[in-house]
Design brief:
InterPro entries: Beta-gal/glucu_dom_sf, Galactose-bd-like_sf, GH, Glyco_hydro_2, Glyco_hydro_2_cat, Glyco_hydro_2_CS, Glyco_hydro_2_N, Ig-like_fold. Helices cover 19% and strands 31% of the residues. By secondary structure, the chain is of the alpha/beta class. It folds into 3 domains: 166 residues, Galactose-binding domain-like (Jelly Rolls), CATH 2.60.120.260; 88 residues, Immunoglobulin-like (Sandwich), CATH 2.60.40; 303 residues, Glycosidases (TIM Barrel, Alpha-Beta Barrel), CATH 3.20.20. α2 runs parallel beside α3. The structure holds (2S,3S,4S,5R)-3,4,5-trihydroxy-6-oxo-oxane-2-carboxylic acid (GCB).
């Protein structure tokens, strides 16, 4: 799916700002058919939950309405006119004046609504967007809605981060020509020092395809014709972790001498491959250092914010991180573009978090009922998951920073039905993208003895909390468990093994000379213990701590003002562990950086 872009043949208007806002219980039926009668305005992009002080808005379960007027530029009479929603969490209905113009389900992937036949160039229209925050057994992530004793509908879900909702990413009105480029797929490779750029272009309407590849200075390095082909670049500059280089692929649709459409896609030339226990980028062993993150901040919730984007990447660089995982949903596309430009490696995760009744069952890991059953993650959930994978890969397939798809976080891969649930999804992902390895983040109940699905995947990604949920305060025992666990996975699979989550909640300012949980010293000692273990295994390919920053959670007695496993606070101040990670990952103070241990 192509991101809207201003080109010689396309224009776009950004619709961010403040929109009229109301929850459904406070407006009449069909509120889109007139001006929303509401005193509230919501910022776009932002999750709406924390904008207002009224708990009835924050805790609302169901539809909310956003509304504004939009003027169509007068020069767009010959074009098709589309609305693009970068995300509407978790479902949307889009009304142009009185007409339902489009719908979408899935809170973290973009969608278009073609409004050409409903609007006029130079005219204006009333745009109303209904957004639902409901999570059920037919959504990804799943959830459950019950009517509580007070008569109100209550949303529960099986992940800890707060269910922020609304229009948390940008909204656009854009024009495309009637004959146009509709999709571009690029895969890259090398033949010695020559770069190979394979392209496939989809179009609508007549016209001949021409492509041009320019280097970072704008100099032409290769060109071709036709809807599919291979471009070769002599002495190619590869896209490398920590050393990004992007070419520009300009795709044009021609009719004789006339350019009907033009679109430019940044392209990084790199390869990704799993070989035995190694994870290879451009044929070189790669060791992941970095974080599981969240899109999360005060007031704006999951609202995309370029200032926070820049600052988070600054902090990642400061700490010596070379990568992150988009836990637990696809992030805004701007984040991936930034990673492309700055050489940060991304594990791109779906929104399939909480497919695990064992976690709900508590520390015993015993599910109250089977996870892979009709009442929970059944066929309808699987269909939603498949559609989500299509949309994720459709959006992110061309980002060089994305080196692996993570199809789920902590599914009940130890339970009956897991194989039947995941096999078709893995086949789908491989068909959509045969070039990138696949993984899923493994919950602690899924052991090397009882996991049922690892053979379908390429990389073992472990989420483990020895020294926190298991053996809190007892790092010596934790060390033994962790060692045995990693050894077990290496022996069972022969695949690369990495840690995608390990961490300890930490209250900044709390100190102790002993191994006291929640103190800054304990978080440091916890990481030191884990790193000691990791460094014993040459088959181990990476460490992503949980979490980059503290983040908001739903109310729960295990969370004190949110999840505090961040090595930065929610407002991005470093805890002692952030400094310790920086020393390790940057090799300061004679500390041994993880990558050096593994010869890359
Ligand atoms: C996990 C989950 C993550 C939680 C984390 C925790 O295993 O994957 O979403 O936030 O544990 O802190 O409990």
């Amino acid at each position: 799916m192509l991101k809207p872009q201003a080109t010689p043949t396309r224009e776009l208007v950004n619709l961010d700002g403040t929109w009229r806002f109301a929850i459904d219980s406070r407006v009449g039926a069909a509120p889109w058919s007139g001006t929303l009668d509401t005193p509230l305005e919501a910022a776009v992009p932002a999750s709406y939950n924390d904008l207002f002080v009224d708990p009835a808005v924050r805790d609302h379960v169901g539809w909310v309405y956003y509304q504004r007027t939009v003027r169509v530029p007068r020069g767009w009479g010959e074009d098709r006119v589309l609305l693009r929603f970068d995300a509407a969490t978790h479902a949307a209905r889009v009304y142009v004046d009185d007409t339902l113009a489009g719908e979408h389900v899935g809170g973290y992937t973009p969608f278009d609504v073609d409004v050409t036949d409903l609007v006029a160039a130079g005219g204006q229209f009333r745009l109303t967007v209904a957004v639902s925050n409901e999570l059920t057994n037919v959504t990804i992530p799943p959830g459950k809605i019950e009517v509580a004793a007070d008569g109100n509908r209550k949303q529960t879900y099986f992940h800890d981060f707060y269910n922020y909702a609304g229009l948390a990413r940008s909204v656009w009105l854009y024009s495309v020509p009637r004959e146009r480029v509709t999709d571009i797929t690029v895969t890259t490779g090398f033949e010695w020092s020559t770069g190979l750029v394979d392209y496939r272009i989809e179009t609508e309407g007549a016209g001949d395809v021409r492509v041009r590849l320019a280097d970072a200075d704008g100099a032409l390095v290769a060109e071709g014709t036709g809807a599919a082909g291979r471009l070769t670049v002599e002495d190619v500059v590869p896209w490398q972790p920590g050393n990004a280089y992007l070419y520009d692929l300009t795709v044009e649709l021609h009719d004789g001498g006339r350019v009907l459409d033009s679109y430019t896609l940044p392209v990084g030339v790199r390869t990704v491959e799993v070989h035995g226990h190694q994870f290879l980028i451009n044929g070189e062993p790669f060791y992941f250092t970095g974080f599981g993150k969240h899109e999360d901040a005060a007031v704006r919730g999951k609202g995309h914010d370029d200032a926070l984007l820049v600052h988070d990447f600054q902090l990642m660089e400061w700490s010596g991180a070379n990568s992150f995982r988009t836990s637990h949903y696809p992030y805004a596309e701007e984040v991936l573009e930034f990673a492309d430009r700055h050489g940060i490696v991304v594990i791109d995760e779906t929104a399939a978090v909480g497919l695990n009744m064992g976690v709900v069952g508590g520390m015993s890991g015993t599910p109250p009922f089977p996870t892979f059953s009709e009442q929970y993650a059944g066929e309808a959930t699987q269909a939603a998951h498949a559609q989500h994978i299509r949309e994720l890969i459709g959006r992110d397939k061309n980002h060089p920073s994305v080196v692996m798809w993570c199809l789920a976080n902590e599914p009940a891969s130890n339970e009956e039905g897991a194989l039947e649930y995941f096999q078709p999804l893995v086949e789908l992902a491989r068909e959509l993208d045969p070039t990138r390895p696949l993984t899923y983040a493994l919950v602690m109940f899924a052991t090397f003895q009882n996991d049922r699905i690892i053979d379908l995947f390429d990389v073992v990604s472990m989420n483990r909390y020895y020294g926190w949920y298991v053996g809190p305060g007892d790092l010596a025992t934790a060390e033994q468990y962790l060692h045995g666990d990693i050894q077990g996975w290496i022996t069972r699979t022969g695949k690369p093994v990495m840690m995608t989550e390990y961490g300890a909640d930490t209250q900044p300012g709390l100190h102790s000379v002993w191994d006291q949980v929640w103190t800054e010293e304990y978080q440091v000692a916890f990481y030191e213990m884990c790193h000691r273990v990791f460094d014993r295994f040459p088959e181990f390919v990476g460490e992503q701590v949980w979490n980059f920053a503290d983040f908001a959670t739903s109310n729960g007695i295990h969370r004190v003002g949110g999840n505090k496993k961040g090595v930065f606070t929610r407002d991005r101040q470093p805890k002692a562990a952030a400094w310790a990670l920086r020393r390790r990952w940057r090799g300061l103070d004679g500390a041994k950086p993880a990558p050096a241990t593994h010869e890359n």
